[in-house]
Amino acid sequence: MELEGSELGTREYWETSYAREIKNYKNHGDIGEIWFDEDSQQRIVDWLLKQENIDKKTARVLDLGCGNGMFLIALANEGFARLTGVDYSPKAIELAMGIAKDQALDINYKVADLTQSESLALGTYSIIHDKGTYDAVSLCPDDPKEKRNSYLSTVSKLLQNEQSLFIITSCNWTEEELLHSFEHLFVKHCTIPTPTFKFGGKVGNVVTSVVFKKKSN
């Protein structure tokens, strides 16, 4: 199954959007919207804080498609120290860097396209987070399947080892669809519960959050 292509899958859309948000931030201190709302973000932060085997001082965290950087700011405020955010929109990185600087937080930000092999220069990480970025890649009007496969291959190589975590939240793909698409590179570690709704006698989720580990070679 393929999603119908959308402007949400283009760099131009996000550059325009973040250029507007930079202006709003400079004029009004408005950090802009958090995609999927703050609840989805806070659920991931809360889950990470409950993991006793994660050392906040040493864990290397990479946020894919970081946008305005608010997920990493939330982690920084909880004591996480080795934080990196990437986005293929230079304007998003400009906004994120500005917000982090104004809050006196030491967060590393870089422009990177995760569908390109050059992004492997980012190094390796013990925690990789994706909230909506796989969705955006899936909405690319130009060969989304190939871009998704390149993206997932990159993510797998950016994970330090088989114990590293890939946490993904999606509003376009169900858990079953993610499991099917990821099975060649990742294995499911756990599901992070998200709110459910009932319609026509069936129960569903508005968003899906799943934690994966990469398959051993």
SSE topology sketch:
Blueprint: H1 11-28, H2 38-50, E1 60-64, H3 70-77, E2 82-87, H4 90-102, E3 108-111, E4 127-131, H5 133-138, H6 144-158, E5 165-170, H7 175-182, E6 186-192, E7 196-199, E8 202-205, E9 208-214
Parallel strand pairs: 1-2, 1-4, 2-3, 4-5
Antiparallel strand pairs: 5-9, 6-9, 7-8
Helix pairs in contact: 1-4
Give a written overview of the molecule.
This protein has 217 residues and is of the alpha/beta class. The chain has a single domain (7-214), classed as Vaccinia Virus protein VP39 (Rossmann fold), CATH 3.40.50.150. The chain has seven helices and nine strands. It has helices at 11-28, 38-50, 70-77, 90-102, 133-138, 144-158, 175-182; strands at residues 60-64, 82-87, 108-111, 127-131, 165-170, 186-192, 196-199, 202-205, 208-214. Strand 2 (82-87), helix 4 (90-102) and strand 3 form a beta-alpha-beta unit. S-adenosyl-L-methionine-dependent protein-lysine N-methyltransferase that methylates elongation factor 1-alpha. One of its GO terms (cellular component) is cytoplasm.
